Amino acid sequence: MTTEELELEKVEIARRYKEMLRNTYRNLTDEDKVMIRRAFDLAVDAHKDQRRKTGEPYIYHPIAVAQIVADEIGLGATSIAAALMHDVVEDTDYTLDDIESLFGKKIAKIIDGLTKISVLNNQDLSIQSENFRKLLLTLSEDVRVIIIKIADRLHNMRTLEAMSENKQLKIASETTFIYAPLAHRMGLYNIKSELEDLSLKFTQPERYFEIYKKLEDTEFERKQYIRKFSDSIAERLQEEGLSYEIKGRPKSIHSINRKMTSQNIAYEEVYDKFAIRIVYHADKKNEKFIAWKIYSIVTDIYRPNPARLRDWITQPKTTGYESLHITVMGPGGKWVEVQIRSARMNEIAEKGIAAHYKYKENYKVEDSRVDEWIAQVREMLENHDMQDTVDFIDNFKLNLYSKEIFVFTPMGDLINLPKGASSLDFAYAIHTNVGDTCLGAKVNGKLFPLSHELKSGDQVEIITSKNQKPKADWLDFVQTSRAKAKIKAALNAERRVYAEEGREILERKMRHLGLKLNENIINEMATFLKEKSSQDLFFHVQSGVISNQDIKKFADRKTGVAGFINRFRSKPIYKKAEETEVQSRQELDLIVFGDEEKKLDYTLANCCNPIPGDKVFGFVTVNRGIKVHKTICPNAVELQANYAYRIQKAKWVDSSRSTFSTEIIIRGIDRMGLVKDITDILSNNMHIDMKNINFSSSDGIFNGSISVVVANKSQLDSVMQKLKNVQGVTKINRKQD
Fold first, then answer.
1. What span, in angstroms and rounded, lies between the C-alpha atoms of 522 and 516?
2. What confidence score (pLDDT) does residue 562 get?
3. Which of 90, 142, 394, 494 is flagged as catalytic?
4. Over residues 420-427, mean pLDDT
């Protein structure tokens, strides 16, 4: 770059820095201003040789993140400084010790939390969730780590166009799966909506721009309607001498799309595409009184829908959100949602947990239940019995995004649970021991089973028995992550006891059969009996799933005649072919994978049933090969967010100009040289490409499978006819037949 261009960049960096501080500068102390300036100077120096994918100086990104933190969320000097330096330790030569010596332990700890989570994007699921767990553990120590990370993700989403298509899809899916729910739980509703909209823009661009264009086309008409609706309300509010603002806002694109998809309706059929918000000014003493006064005024003018009343003022959400929501019939027979909230409530709704802590000193802790939620999160994160990392992320997401109900104990205490929670969830919310010994529940005085779904306002009494213990089928109906974790912990403990008994039983039985149980024998036996682990092997021995006959079959392989012969028989030189289901192509198009357009075996996913022409991607499963999903499949977001390393780029091509793979199953009488005769026919005579071959023999009978690539069905028929003529072959067919 020329000297002039570099100077212009320096001027632009300084302008962005001043713009970042413009709204918060007057609230900062001189000491704060000096700290932020030092953080800015360090970040500029650290990133001076780095550029973003757009070609811009890298420092633009931390400045933008700091501006989100300062303006859109409203955090203070410590958070602004940490946001400016959030990538310094990860991407440059500066160390955490350098940050601590220059800025102190508090800022160093925040940056350490941000650095730990940054490796998420490049690692597999188990490491992803472990790092995610580490990040969230900092939640109870310093919630600013989470908030700055959300701000970082928001700016990355705003500038995602510069990334490759695959990166866009992965980052957008991860944002929908983790960061939007996290923003929701932090009470950052505006940011949550923007993250969801931006994610939709890259995961389903056609649907996003379809809705965006329709909202844009109807903007003038919408504004006119809002003005007409608001005028009569404003007149009455002025008569009452209230200080207020009335705002109209469109529903988010993601929200409209969700309603269109879930209800299978067109855009025009979504009736509540916008909401009216009345924000009033009041002191704490009169806040609730004025909210219901405004409610009375609105419902005097417009007829309310009683089923659509949501009172989050009397009972705030666990995020601290307070607001009164009503849906009324407006002019022209249109349903309109009206949100009524004070200026304080509005700030908490827009700036979330940051505003909660700002007001905490002046208002009682019970005014928000955020602290209670943080305590629950920490308990879940520290639960070492939840070993399954997929479960961990799923359960955490459940904790993040669930709608809430409020249920009472017999003594009148209020318990907050997710919508759909059962009596058993309620029992575990009281205490682990109450859940573990729960027999049933009395709901509003009547006896119900453990699986009974609770409703808001229910009063629940749990019935327990010391003889009761957790059962595996409880996992089918509990909703809360706490209940699931506690049930799994109890079942795993019980399973370990049974497995120990199973090992002792197996040791005795093997001794009678002349074998000593050791690590090698256990591993061989687990493989032979198709058990996933040694613990499963022992457990199934104890429970009788593995019979004495099964154990004897294995022992005979090791000690009997078959075992003696196996010592001298040469090992198969071919790997066992993976079982794959191959769809009959007939005249259908074919799917190819990757930039090289490789032809690989695959099956079409049942959850979305792709057809030729659909936009698709491949997902490499553990046991079933590649499954092909539509990019708008209901499961696509979760797969792309959690298993990005197993996603394959895919597209439909004309199968008439392509080869396809299939598997041939052969059976017959074993003889010397049989495999050579078969491979000679395929490779030398017909020049067929073999991908996998597997043969096994028992008692003079062989079974084999061969994966081949052929141009068409007639070539396959010719191959099968020639193989049928090989001496000893008695049966041959395609696997799918």
1. 10
2. 44
3. 90
4. 92
Q: Please tell me the pTM assigned to this model.
A: 0.59
234, 241 contact by CB (below 8 A): no
| Nearest-5° Cα angle at 160, 156 to 166 | 120
DSSP string, 537-595: HHHHHHHTSS-HHHHHHHHHHHHSHHHHHHHHSPPPSSPPPPP------TTS-EEEETT
Residue 587: CA atoms inside 13 Å, Cβ hemisphere, count? 0
Distance, CA of 642 to chain centre: 6
The DSSP annotation for 39-92 comes to: HHHHHHHHTTT-B-TTSSBTTHHHHHHHHIIIIII---HHHHHHHHTTTHHHHS
Mean pLDDT of the 155-169 span: 88
- 91 catalytic? Reply is yes
Looking at 266-388, list the stretches that DSSP marks H as alpha helix, in order from N- to C-terminal side: 287-301, 343-351, 353-359, 370-381
Grouping H, G, I as helix, E, B as strand and the rest as coil, residue 341 is: strand
Q: How far is CA 120 from the centre of its chain?
A: 13
The SS3 of residue 248 is: strand
> Per residue in 99-137, is it b (16+ CB within 10 Å) or e — as a string?
bbeebeeebbbbbbbbbbbbebeeeebeebbebbbebbb
Side-chain half-sphere CA neighbours of 453 within 13 A: 7
Residue recorded with tokens 């608001």: 230
Residues 6+ apart with CB under 8 A from 458: 407, 408, 443, 444
Q: β-strands 626-630, 602-604: how paired?
A: parallel
Residues 6+ apart with CB under 8 A from 453: 420, 421, 422
Helix axes 253-263, 205-217, angle to 10 degrees: 110
Task: Spell 652-664 as b/e; 16+ CB within 10 A means b.
Answer: beebeebebbbbb
Mean residue pLDDT of the chain comes to 80
pLDDT for the residue numbered 408: 84
Q: Cα–Cα distance between 76 and 54 in angstroms, integer?
A: 30
CB 203 within 8 A of CB 176: yes
Among residues 604, 654, 655, 653, the alpha carbon closest in space to that of 630 is found at 604
From its phi and psi, is residue 515 left (phi > 0), alpha (psi between -120 and 50) or beta?
beta
Residue 594: how many other CB atoms lie within 10 Å: 12
Give tens-digit pLDDT for 327-364: 999 888 888 899 999 998 888 888 776 666 655 544 44
In this structure, the dihedral spanned by the alpha carbons of residues 469, 472, 477 and 482, taken in order and rounded to 10 degrees, is 70
The H-or-E segment that residue 406 falls in is strand 404-408
Collapsing DSSP to helix, strand or coil, 616 comes out as strand
Alpha-carbon distance 508 to 514, whole Å? 10
Closest listed residue to residue 402, CA positions, set 307, 320, 482, 479: 479
Q: Which residues are 461's β-sheet partners?
A: 442
- C-beta neighbour count of 572 within 10 angstroms: 13
**Section 249-271 average pLDDT:** 85
Is 382 one of the catalytic residues?
A: no
Query: In this predicted structure, which of 3-7, 350-354, 396-400, 573-577 has the lowest mean pLDDT?
Result: 573-577
Can you name the residues that pair with 704 across neighbouring β-strands? Answer: 666, 695
Among 91, 311, 350, 371, the one annotated catalytic: 91
Give bridge partners of residue 51 from the DSSP assignment.
57
Q: Which two tokens stand for residue 408?
A: 């009472």
pLDDT band at 378 (very low <50, low <70, confident <90, very high): low
199 pLDDT tier (thresholds 50, 70, 90): very high
3-state helix, strand, coil split of the chain in percent (to 5) is 55, 15, 30
